[in-house]
Design goal:
Blueprint: E1 7-10, H1 14-25, E2 33-36, H2 40-50, E3 53-54, H3 58-64, E4 67-70, H4 77-80, E5 93-96, H5 103-109, E6 115-120, E7 130-136, H6 142-153, E8 156-160, H7 166-174, H8 176-193, H9 198-219, H10 223-230, H11 236-246, H12 249-269
Parallel strand pairs: 1-2, 1-4, 2-3, 4-5, 5-6, 7-8
Antiparallel strand pairs: 6-7
Helix pairs in contact: 7-12, 8-9
């Protein structure tokens, strides 16, 4: 069961919507969720679909809620957050989902000793299967981290890391769904080339990836161990794996995480 205290969303985009949907599914009252978003279209959508309350502006959210979710675009942080500096107090907890934005940046923009928790969720949160990493800012407490964890458990799993590791989280799980979508697309194309109808190939590819991931999570075993169990000497799986080795799939995926991590660091330096 999630907390029933009022939760204020500064920004009502897709990830905010995913959190709202998850919170409601966990029993959080809709009238205890307040959202500010500059888009009338988003306001109408969130109000009509989820019956949440709408705020006239960001400062109204801060005035009415002690638990805040900052869900704006990272490039807007310098324009939006300083306006809140006079209203965010030591009683507030701000949970930020801004990619590449350090807790120290938010603390500075808020004028000093704000309690900030930084979160890096990913898009599968939209279907309740997200993977979120959290880290605490300088003034956030262990209780603040747990409060944030409760929020994100409504849309998936939660891990706590150091802030120094958040760029790697971005490169792995933040960007990772796109890598997996590419794998599913390639598997589908392979099935089509071998004679399967596209809709059948896509269904098989997607469910294969989903099932394999669930097996890793449920078994608690290393992927290498599970892979070995699928391989029979001289069989079809080994033949397929040899093609992956020829194409350097492992090295390519490792490099994808590395490049995305470096880019996250670069973007963070711009703030």
């Amino acid at each position: 069961m999630v907390t029933t205290q009022p939760i204020g969303f500064i920004g009502g985009g897709n990830m905010a919507e995913a959190l709202i949907k998850g919170l409601l599914a966990q029993g959080h009252p809709a009238d205890q969720i307040l959202v500010a978003d500059p888009s009338p279209v988003r306001q109408t959508l969130l109000s009509d679909l989820y019956k949440v309350e709408l705020a006239a502006g960001n400062c109204e959210v801060v005035a009415q809620c002690r638990l805040l979710v900052l869900a704006i675009k990272p490039q807007l942080v310098e324009a939006v957050v300083p306006e809140l500096a006079g209203t965010v107090t030591a009683e507030h907890l701000m949970v930020s989902i801004l990619a590449g934005t350090a807790t120290a940046t938010l603390e500075r923009l808020l004028g000093g000793a704000a309690r900030v928790v930084r979160a890096m969720p990913n898009t599968p949160a939209l279907v309740g299967c997200g993977a979120t990493a959290l880290c605490a800012g300088r003034f956030a407490t262990a209780a603040d981290l747990e409060t944030a964890a409760v929020l994100f458990r409504a849309v998936g799993s939660v891990n706590t890391v150091s802030e120094a590791q958040m760029d790697a989280v971005t490169g792995l799980s933040g960007s990772g769904p796109a890598y997996v979508f590419s794998v599913i697309e390639a598997l589908t194309d392979g099935g089509v080339e071998e004679g399967l109808p596209r809709e059948v190939a896509l269904a098989l590819a997607a469910r294969t990836v989903l099932g394999a991931a669930q097996l890793v999570v449920a078994s608690g075993e290393e992927p290498a161990v599970l892979r070995a169990r699928v391989c029979s000497p001289g069989g079809t799986t080994l033949a397929g794996l040899s093609a992956l080795e020829d194409g350097n799939l492992r090295a390519t995926l490792i490099e994808a995480v590395a490049r995305a991590t470096r880019r996250s660091k670069e973007l963070g330096k711009c703030l």
